[in-house]
Amino acid sequence: MTTSGTGGTTGEKRKIAILGGGIGGLTAALDLTATPELREKYEVTVHQMGWRLGGKCATGRNPDMFDRIEEHGIHGFTGAYFNALPMMKAAYEEWATLDETDYGPAPDHPLATFEKAFPPRDSSFFWELHDGRLKRWRIYRPPNGLTLEDAQKFGTLASWLKFMKKAFAQRPPDPDEAPSPDATPTQPRDEVLDPFLDEVEKEIGGADAPNAPCGSGAAKDLDLGTMPDRLKQPPCAQKAEETDAERRDRITRTLLEVILRGLMIDDIEAKGFKSVDHENFADWLRRHGAPEDVMASPLAVSPINTTYQYPNGDYTRPPQMSASAYLQWFLRGFVTLGHAFYLFAGGSGETLVTPIYAILRKRGVKFEFFHRVESIEAERDIVSEVKVTKQASVKRGEYDPFVRVRGLHAWPHTPIYDQLENAEALKGVDLENPYADLEDIGERLSLKVGEDFDHVVIAMPIGALKLAAAPLGRRDADWRAMLEGMTSIGTQNMQIWMSKSLEKLGEVGRDPAGGPWYFLAGNYRGGPHGHADFSKYIEFESWPADATPKTCIYFSGVLQPDGENAPSRSADDARAKAECLALLKMAGSQLRPGFSNPAATASPFPMDFGLLACPHDESAKGLDRFDHQYWRSNTYPSERYTSSPPGTKALRLDPLDAKFRNATVAGDWTDFGMNVGSFEGACMSGKLAASAIEPSLDPARIVGLFPTKGDAPETAKEGPHSS
């Protein structure tokens, strides 16, 4: 007797093939092996191209550059990662039980606990372009006393709005000054915003059930017909003259009023965010009365810049983002678990991926590194075959993916060739390039349904699927529409190491949690428009004792122009270098006063490139020192960022209804409600994929799905659960 019509006889473990070792696939593996009972039920194998896991969170250590951490971009958690934060906390608790032989943390491991690995931050700042110059707009969100175990409290839109009111009742006295640890977190009631929020709370009303669907009766439906007149009024007007603090307070109050009023006018509580997915965020904001200066503010634009919402990577064109995705991402800035941010004490690979890999391996999950998926085939309504190129063979045993650096199990920036057959030939091949010619090296494999897998989790990025999933598009109209219509964009990353500390470079103030202000993207456009301080990572690198950098800053953004199917990244990397260098030349001294070269006051390019750390070649001068920093383009299909333009919800595949009976999907290109590319989004999607396979994994455990009446989470309509 078969359990699904696709193999897996009663009494035998069902074989789950997960295609892709990014966060969506790893999350699905975590959920499907979460208990001893599930581990007895499923045999899980992760197939990953190349030598490292993590997708866009993958990192590499470069031994030729003092084991520096090299990443795809800027990564960090906000306090609104309601699913990712608890998942990582649980992963760290399990990881702590592993022996060092199983890649567990040693007693003196610097990232041994969640608390060590994810230091909190309560502040950030935007860059505001005003009167022709960049100004810092500081944001401070005091800790709200919630813990990660409180995530389920954010299961309804009503609960989000209530917590937003609490957040604004705890604004610091002066948003333009760095708060001291002893400062009171409150100020007098805002004469405009606070009464408005009072009215909103009255309208919301009701007691929220944990994770209850919106419109389920757990909270009062928001009805425009009964909305008090106060909530229908336009936002407050701009004064003739305003200080920076007054302008920012007005913009904040106005934008919040516009969004909260719009949620009620459009009856989002009952109709769901999906009802405005077709509308561009800017059109939605204007429709609800947002003034143009508010629209251009960093508070309004930051959700666009931090999620790269520029068509085809072209930042000279107006950004496009679904109002549904925009609103959910924006609102998450005010509803947090304890702190506004949880940063990573080490690189993304070591902090996020290493513990997950270690515990999955200990649970019995198999990892097939160097498996490049070429084609996913289907017969009728099942996935029948997965064609794979085995890029490399291990000499003996299983592949050990780690190098040890500063007590960490770290991911190298190239394969560990000593473990591989045919190593010399492999050194000339980029194993993360799907177009790389492996004709004389690779081995062709065919994974068959009923033999190698019973179910498949398709967890590859959308760019890669456009190459590998064409057979599914020929079988199913929804797959075809998704492959043709979903878009992704190329991005770029720059990392610079500097010889002066942040304070000497012009940093002002300290976060009450103990670190410097965490700076984010501003409202200026350009390639690497977002940047953040990652100086903490330096202690986990191997710089010379007498020449250790004091600061490391990451820059990240879209890459223009954007070529989608280039056979190599060399031209894209050169373009990324040019854009990053141009940013430092033209704006470096504005971003940090200490970046300026005091001897070049007459120069149009006052950046002091002598500040760039270059201990391996101290003879390098000026611009030559930039050549020893790190930059990259992310334009291979598996590296591209999934964008969220209007109308794409209809194109995204639902993990609970993936169209083929023995398949589900995972990744931030799927439909997981919020539909914004992020670790949190991939985590939500991975959890949905696990629910599609295992009936006991209730989708209602996933926070932030926000279904509406008659649209509550449910198990797959027909598929992996079916007998």
Gross morphology is globular
Strand numbers in spatial order across the main sheet: 10-2-1-16-24
Give the overall pLDDT as a whole number. Answer: 85
Percentage beta strand: 15-25%
Quickly count the helices: 20
Over the alpha carbons, how many angstroms does the gyration radius reach?
Answer: 25 Å
Biggest sheet record: 5 strands, parallel
Could you give the count of β-strands?
A: 24
Structural class: alpha+beta
What fraction, in percent, of the residue positions are helical?
25-40%
The rounded distance between the terminal residues' Cα atoms is 9 Å
Low-confidence stretches: 1-7, 173-189, 206-225, 712-723
Would you mind describing this structure in some detail?
With 723 residues, this protein is α+β, with helices and mostly antiparallel strands. Helices cover 27% and strands 16% of the residues. It is built from 20 helices and 24 strands. The strands form eight sheets. Strands 10-2-1-16-24 form a five-stranded parallel sheet. Strands 20-21-18-22 form a four-stranded antiparallel sheet, with helices on one face. A three-stranded antiparallel sheet has the order 5-9-6, with no helix packed on it. Helix 1 packs parallel to helix 13 (348-363), helix 6 packs parallel to helix 7 (244-265) and helix 9 (281-287) packs across helix 12 (323-331). The longest helix is centred in the middle third of the chain and has 22 residues, at 244-265. It is globular, with a radius of gyration of 25 Å.
What characteristics describe this protein?
single chain; 723 residues; alpha+beta; 5-stranded parallel β-sheet; 4-stranded antiparallel β-sheet; 20 helices
